[in-house]
Design goal:
2 helices, 26 strands, Immunoglobulin-like, mainly beta, 3 domains, six-stranded mixed beta sheet
């Protein structure tokens, strides 16, 4: 019959507790396992204690965050859809998705991804005006705890017929109502075709630009002389020139030029675009500039809603400077909001500045109203901001001739 004491000691030794049992001496035939110098007794959890799983939350995973496209010719649109998985145990909400360059857009994407689900991020890179090796980034901001900012990248090589020198040569300095401006633009062959032929085509649309083309290095380099002549219109004055080439992949090459005539009263920037994805209050600069010869006083500025708060900062030269507070997660309605500047100017007693929504709306969970518990309807009260009258002597402005 088995000795019950020996059976008990065998069990204790198997559990690693031989040395904690005092029985007056060693038991023949039983040897406790040897302890190392660093070995410590294992912690014993109370019987019945429940093990709680660690909180995880949402988790963004993209197996292919970099897309390298095959070489294309300038003007082509490059489309690619990035796939993002949620390996967490809560919904992955996309708080913000934006490109670092205006040439790359995310027209539509999944705003929330369920646990275990996959979201689609279709992106388009417009290659017009791009050349050589390009790298364009998309920034994705999520509701993850901790690190919540991720990058998606589109990169590759874009062929062009010519390289335009110097950098920024197609942009004219600020135009004046009666001023005539000429720019010289160097076009260097980058097509891979030698010799390159370029033939300037007749201009068919109305524009304030004319051009002449001269071949300076046979088949390799050309000089384009562009002249901007009034009348100009306020703000943007775009122009386009077309060239016939001997490049099979791009038989017609397009070159755009740009000029800007500041209006008499200029708002900088011309408007605010707000998507509602801002994670904190924004304080955006806004200026009202008088480019005319008649001084005027900005007497007050009024916001169409109390959430948007303008504040007068200072006057420098002929420019009134403001700072506009836009709350975190605030998004204008489809019709937009605005600021009204009251002046004593006979031509423009009121100057309207528009604030518009841009892009798709953010998820409901992160809207301004949801975060702050605010009502969805906003009061129609306005909030004038008064400032001391300021009169500014400005440079003369000549009268523009009427367009023929």
């Amino acid at each position: 019959m088995r000795d019950p004491v020996r059976a008990l000691l065998t069990t204790v030794l198997a559990l690693g507790g031989a040395e904690s049992v005092a029985v007056g001496g060693p038991v023949p035939g039983l040897t406790a396992p040897a302890k190392t110098a660093t070995e410590r007794p294992a912690a014993v959890e109370p019987v019945g204690a429940a093990t709680q799983p660690a909180a995880r939350g949402p988790k963004y995973v993209c197996d292919a965050p970099v897309y390298e496209f095959k070489p294309v010719w300038t003007g082509a649109a490059i489309d690619h859809t990035f796939l993002v998985r949620n390996e967490g145990d809560e919904d992955l909400v996309i708080l913000e998705a934006k490109a670092t360059c205006h040439c790359t857009v995310l027209p539509n994407y999944d705003r929330a991804i369920k646990p275990g689900g996959t979201g689609r991020f279709p992106a388009t890179l417009r290659s017009e005006g791009q050349r050589d090796h390009v790298v364009k980034e998309l920034i994705i901001v999520t509701n993850e705890r901790g690190e919540n900012t991720h990058k998606l990248v589109m990169k590759g090589f874009i062929h062009t017929v010519v390289n335009i020198l110097p950098l920024g040569a197609t942009y004219f300095p600020p135009l004046t109502p009666n001023g005539r401006v000429t720019k010289e633009i160097t076009l260097k062959n980058t097509s891979g075709v030698s010799p390159l032929t370029l033939e300037l085509q007749p201009v068919t649309q109305a524009q304030p630009y004319t051009a002449t083309l001269t071949e300076t290095v046979p088949g390799e380099e050309f000089l384009l002389v562009v002249t901007a002549e009034p009348p100009f219109r306020d703000n943007q004055n775009p122009g386009t020139f077309l060239f016939k080439t001997n490049v099979p992949e791009q038989p017609i090459y397009k070159l755009d030029v740009h000029g800007f005539l500041p209006p008499r009263v200029q708002l900088m920037p011309p408007m605010f675009l707000v998507d509602g994805n801002q994670q904190a209050d924004q304080f955006r600069p806004l200026s009202v500039r008088n480019n005319g010869d008649t001084p005027f006083t900005v007497q007050s500025v009024t916001s169409s809603v109390p959430e948007i708060e303008p504040r007068f900062v200072e006057r420098i030269g002929n420019e009134f400077r403001y700072q506009v507070r836009i709350p975190a997660h605030y998004r204008p309605p489809p019709a937009g909001e605005h600021l009204i500047f009251e002046t004593d100017d006979a031509e423009q007693p009121q100057i309207r500045f528009d604030i518009r929504a841009s892009g798709p709306p953010p998820p409901t969970a992160v809207t301004h109203a949801a975060r702050r518990g605010a009502p969805t309807t906003r009061p129609a009260t306005t909030r004038p901001v008064r400032q001391p009258p300021i009169r500014i002597p400005l440079r003369p402005r000549t009268t523009r001739p009427a367009a023929p």
